[in-house]
Structures are given as structure tokens and as C-alpha cells.
């Protein structure tokens, strides 16, 4: 298909919500994907941020809206409404932190409660660069994914390992994407940077998540 055909169909938009315990690397994965950078100093995500990025596929373009959630207790009550709105949930744990892996069961349950089976769930074991501190094996990650019938990948936001693969896998599983092949080659995949650090919608600001 020619590039001009991108404009024929309305741009399909998909919301992805990132879930998982604090410090597992949700913000770092998004930052690596968006800007191809990594920051080793920890900055807690305040409330909920979203960024969006356009992916050019072989026969169409999709807009991914990435919702980054924060682990602080006072924001927890907001998360279900973001899950409800999302067609994809990316559930992240830290392979050096068994507790964060155990808690993925709860995050997956939360997604099922809100969305049933009408959702793509990707389980992500992050921080593979810290292999000497690994507490959760690849097999355990795969096992949990199988048990819940969801997708699985290990990543390192620090090393940039499997970050593009994660988003490619998610994009190819999006509803309505069955017959769509992604453009081959890492460098072609993501071309356009859309928006950064947009404020959350007005109906969420009243709950204080932008403080
Ligand atoms: N070694 C290593 N550190 C990481 C990786 N991803 C994130 N971090 C670090 O882990 C800490 C928490 O990351 P962050 O993305 O803020 O986690 P979040 O709370 O889930 O958003 C930060 O100090 C990051 O630099 C990774 O792949 N490898
Ligand atoms: Mg964060």
C-alpha cells in the first residue's frame, strides 16, 4: 500500500495502561520507547501521565496512548478507571524482586475484573541487565503468563533490550490487527513523536493526581 493510503482510514487509537509495583521500571520502559533514553536516578511518577506515539504499520497507522500509573497508595483508587478505558494492559515486574512478581497476579486480576477477556495483557519482566541479582526465572514468568493466557516478554529499559519488541508484540495483538503486518526492521517502526507529558484530562485533575 502507498503511504497516501494512511490517510484514507481514520487513525485507530489504542490506550495502553502500564501497571505494576513501584520501581519495577514502568516509566523507564515508556521513556526508552519514546525517547530512547534511560535515567538511573529514580523519580517517582506523580499521579498518572500519558504520552502518545504513532506507529506506522504496513497498511495503516495506529496511535498508541500510553498511560503511566504511579504506585503511591493515594492514586490507587484512580487506576481501575484507566484500566476500564484501555484495550491493552502492560503488567510489569522487576526480575530482581520476587515480591513485584507475586503482585502481578493481583494486577492481572484487576485487569480481568474491569475488562474480562476484552483486553490484551502483556506481562513484562524488566531489568534483565541485573542478571546476577535475578530472583525470578524466565520459566516462572512464562509459566505465569501461560496460566493467565496472556503474553510475556523480558526487557531491560536500561540496556534497551526488547523494548521495541514489546511494543511490536502488543501492536500485533491489538483488536482488528489480525491481518496487519508490522513494517519490518526496528528503525522504521516508530517514526513520529506526538506529545509529551500532557496533563491528565480535566475530570481527573479534580481528584488531585497532578499535584
Ligand atoms: N538496572 C536497571 N534499572 C532499571 C531498569 N528499569 C528501570 N530501572 C531503574 O529502576 C528505578 C525505577 O524505575 P521507574 O521507571 O521509575 O519505575 P516505576 O516506578 O515502575 O515507574 C529507577 O532508578 C530506574 O533507573 C532496568 O531495565 N535496569
Ligand atoms: Mg513511574
Keywords:
211 residues; alpha/beta; Rossmann fold; 31% helix; 24% strand; globular; disordered C terminus; binds guanosine-5'-diphosphate; binds magnesium ion
Descriptive account of the structure:
This protein has helices at residues 26-35, 73-76, 79-84, 98-102, 104-115, 138-148, 163-172, 186-189, 202-205, and strands at residues 12-19, 49-56, 61-68, 88-94, 120-126, 151-154, 190-198. The chain contains 9 helices and 7 strands; from the N terminus they run βαββααβααβαβααβα. With 211 residues, the chain is α/β, with parallel strands linked by helices. The chain has a single domain, classed as 3-Layer(aba) Sandwich (Rossmann fold). It is globular. 36% of the residues are buried. The longest helix has 12 residues, at 104-115. Helix 6 (138-148) links the parallel strand 5 (120-126) and strand 6 (151-154). A 7-stranded mixed beta sheet has the order 6-5-4-1-3-2-7, sandwiched between helices. The structure holds guanosine-5'-diphosphate and magnesium ion (MG). Guanosine-5'-diphosphate (GDP) is lined by residues 20, 22-28, 39-40, 42, 45, 71, 126-127, 129-130, 156-158. Keywords: GTP-binding, Lipoprotein, Nucleotide-binding, Prenylation, Protein transport, Transport.
